[in-house]
Predict the 3D structure of the following.
Amino acid sequence: MNTGALSLDQAPPISVPWRFFLTAPLFGLATALVLAWYGPAILESRWLPASAAAVHLLTLGFITMVMAGAMMQMLPVVAGAPVPHPRLVAWGLHVPLTAGTVALVGGFLTGTRGAFLAGALLLATFAVVFVAVVALSLARAKSAFGTVNGMWAALIAFAVTAALGVPMAWSFGRGAFPAAFGLWRDLHPLWGLGGWVGLLVVGVGYQVVPMFQLTRPYPRLMTWAVAPLGLAGLAAASLLPGTWAPRTAGTIAALALAVFAAATLVLQSTRRRRLPDVSLTYWRVAMASLAGAALLFVARPAWPAANAAQLEVFSVLLAIVGFALSVIEGMLLKIVPFLAWFHLQARAGLSVRVPNVKDFLPDRPARWQLRAHVAALSLLLPAVGWPAAFWPAVAAFAASQCVLGWNLWRTAWRFRTALAQLG
Amino acid sequence: MSATRFVDVCGLAPPEPMERILEALRTLPQGETLRVHIHRQPYPLYDILAREGYACATAARDDGTFELTIRHTG
């Protein structure tokens, strides 16, 4: 049973999660600019510095940015233990993450050593604060086992991702790249995308899919098994390189994520009320992409050598834009207007009528956001082998980030206006 | 015995159940009771009700849904 509850006393001030949510589309738009600046060649390999810049703008500036904000909101709810000094902690996370991402990306784009060093220091600061705060809260958690389980697994994966990434950025700054980092370069995205992003979505999905999409709950065995299997697979792949174990363990971890995606699609198809819902469609795109990316990973030994670099880029796009961005954008459409309504209602009391959730973010602009996102994804994926699709893809992606930003910022503005009217 | 109003919010996606319940309470005459049929426990609502001076009793039904009985304590 889901026992998470949003309590007025425990919910952080609305500015805590919002600063993260409202920043994300700016990094999305910056990604579109980097893509446009470097042209179709940026999709030829994931090892190009410009590709690394674009990937980190999205994984740190967008994905981690929103997930950190969402954790600040969800931890008190799930764990029942409010984050101490939430405004101060939010500053301590948001500033180093924003500045660290800009510095790291600047390092990739210009090759400036100082930018890499600054990026490494700032992102290390973010990682240490984030892991400490989240671990402290999760250690006090007493309820919502599947979600807490998934959050622990995701936090461990985040810590490993950072522990692999920060030293690499630091050594770029020192002008060196030790041979051992060859393996780290492969493990870093595996832990980041499969572990940090994948397992957190799994953990949160156990709560939000049944709650928001009115489905049956996930099978209990699944809520116990997916996160430990994923984590164990990643650990085995890292600790036993060069043996049969990484392949097998990686396959098990990828299949666990694919099973979660398939289960989510089945639950959604048998939900109680079949009303059209933008957020639900986002989730469906995300789950199809997750299953696709996981199965592509499993089939990696069978990839034709001539197309291996392209398939790698395709998988990364599927995982980042198809899976992570879809699920995050879908959830932002639910969470941001809900928080606006909830905080306003709490402030106003029952005697005053406040705008409802749809007044803060109506369906129409939400549908436009979904259309732009699906267009971007449908064009970006073929652009990997078909450069003619690249420019329309970049235009659609830039448009989708503009619509997302418009929707989020306008909701915030409407909240401020409504709050001012309360006096 | 006081008059009772009834609201069925079963199967509505969040936060519509909460919006409808609060709207119903806003127009509920003093002394009347609001009964609510809902598919899950509305945890965030309890906090708002307590702050606004309402008492709420929750009863689980056999079909897995819940019935809330809400009345003003003032």
Remarks:
- Residues 101 and 258 of chain A are 30 Å apart (CA to CA).
- Chain A has 13 helices and no strands.
- The two ends of chain A are 40 Å apart (CA to CA).
- The interface with chain B takes residues 2-9, 211-214, 272-273, 275, 277, 338, 341-342, 345-346, 349-351, 353, 356-357 of chain A (CB under 8 Å).
